[in-house]
Amino acid sequence: MLKEERQQFILNEVRVHNRVLLTDMADLLKVSMDTIRRDIKELHKEKKLKKVHGGAISLGFNNYSFQFNEVYSLEKKSKIAVKCISLLRNGQVLLLTGGTTNMELARMLPTNLTLTCFTPSLPVANQLMSKPNVEVIFVGGKIAKDAQIAMGAAAVNILNSIKVDICFLGTHSIDLDEGLTEFDWEIVQMKKAMMQASRKVIAPVISEKLNTKQRYRICDIQHIDMLITELDANDDKLIEFRSKNIEVL
Amino acid sequence: MLKEERQQFILNEVRVHNRVLLTDMADLLKVSMDTIRRDIKELHKEKKLKKVHGGAISLGFNNYSFQFNEVYSLEKKSKIAVKCISLLRNGQVLLLTGGTTNMELARMLPTNLTLTCFTPSLPVANQLMSKPNVEVIFVGGKIAKDAQIAMGAAAVNILNSIKVDICFLGTHSIDLDEGLTEFDWEIVQMKKAMMQASRKVIAPVISEKLNTKQRYRICDIQHIDMLITELDANDDKLIEFRSKNIEVL
DNA sequence: CAAACTTATGCAAAAAAATGCAAATAATTG
DNA sequence: CAATTATTTGCATTTTTTTGCATAAGTTTG
C-alpha cells in the first residue's frame, strides 16, 4: 500500500468517525505504529487533522478556536475594556463586534448600566445575557464556526437598517497608511456595515496590533473616531495617530 | 478513549447541563476521579469552563430559567430526541425552537449528519456549533433573557422570508381541544411564524405536557404533522391524537 | 467539631512520542 | 542496466505523557 493511500485512508477515517486511534490504524493497515505516527504528523502539519496523544481528531470537532486567544494578552484587554466602559452612559445603543477584546468588554460591563447592545457574536451575546439592564439584540445570519459570528448578506442587511450611538470595532490589524485590515473578506463586509450603522466608531486595539497589515482593507484610518489601547496616552506609537485627528485614550 | 475526546465530552456536558459533577464524569467515562480532576483543571486553565468544588460549571452561560427544567425529565427528552433524529436525512433544512427538548436534540445530533439549521435560540445555536457538518443560521432579533431566544418583529420578519423542510416545535402545552398553547404572547407570535416557515411541523412533547393548557393559543392540533413523545406508540393517551390524523411516534 | 467528601501531591506503572539508526524500497542518473 | 541517491519503514532506546493509587491536607455540611 502506498503512503498516499494510507494517509487518505486515515483522513477518511477521521472524517467519518471524527477520531482515530494510532493502534487501530497500525493494526488495520498492517504497518508499525511509527509509520502511522509519521503519517499523522505530516497530516497535522498540513492542517488536515489534529494530532493528539494516542491518535488524531477531526479539525472541525472542537471548534472553539476563538477561545485559544482567550488567555493571550488578557490583561491588556481588560485594561482596554475599562477605558471603553468609562465612555458609556445610560441609555446608549451599542454595536459590538466579536473578538476577545469585546468579550472582555461585555464581561466587565457594570450591572447597573442600562444599555441596548446589538451584536452578531454568539459569545458576546451570551456574555451580555448576565447583565440585567442590557437589552441584547442579536444580528442574525449564517454563523461562521471559527469566529462564532453571524455573517453574510442577511447580517449585513440588518446592519444596514439600524443606526446606533457607538460601535466598538475589534480589529485584527491597524496601520497608519493601510488603515484597518482583515484577512477574511466576509468579515470585512460585516465591519464595513457596522461602521456605516454607527454614529461613532471606536477601535479597541492592543498595542501588538498597531502598525500591522492584512490582505483586505476595511477602511482608512480617518474613519475611526477613537482609538483605545492599553498604552499610556503619550506613547510614541500613538502620536502619529493623534496627528491624523483620531482621539486616543 | 482519547484524552481530547474525554475533555470534549466534559465540555459538551457543561454546555448542556451548565454543570458537571466529578463523580458523574468519572463514572460515565470509566476513568478515575483524578483523571477527570486533571481534565477539568486543564480546561479551567484554558478558560473553557470554571472549576468548582466537586466538579465544574459553565462560564459563558447563566441560565436561571434553564437550570430548572434541565434536570427534570432529561431522560424522557433524550428518548424523544433519538426519535426525532431518526427522521433526519442528510441535506435537510431544519428550524429549531428553544427549550430543553430541542437542546437535547441538538446535543445528540450525530456529527456526520449534514444539515442546515435555523434557530432563534442562543443555547441551541451554541450547541450546534460543535457539529462540524451543520450549517447554523441564527434568526436574530431582540433576545428574551429568560428563554434566551430571539423574538419580536425582526425575528418574525426573518422567519416570514424562509421555508424549511422540518420544524421541531417545542411546546409548553398541548391539548386535544385547545391545541398548542403558550403563556407568553411574544412566543406565540414566534411559533406561529415558525410553523408558517416550515413544510412539516413536528412537535416533540414529553407526556407531562399532553392535555395541558395555557393562556394563549398558537394553533389547532390539526396543524401539527407529527407528535413525538417518549411513550409507546399505542399508549392510551395517544389514541385520540392519532384519530385526529396526526402521526404519532 | 466531626464525619463525609473533595483536593493536592508525590510516586510508580503503563502507554505513547521522539530520536537515532539500519534495512528495504523506490527514484534518479550516467 | 548498474550505481548512486533519496525515501520509506521498522526497530531499539530514551524521554515524555498519561493515569491510577496512596497519603495528607483542605472543604462542606449537619
From TrEMBL, chains A, B:
It comes from the Bacteria. The keyword Transport does not apply. Residues 3-58 form the HTH deoR-type domain. Pfam families: DeoRC, HTH_DeoR. The keyword Iron does not apply. Keywords: DNA-binding, Transcription, Transcription regulation. One of its GO terms (molecular function) is DNA binding. This is Transcriptional regulator, DeoR family. It comes from Cellulophaga fucicola.
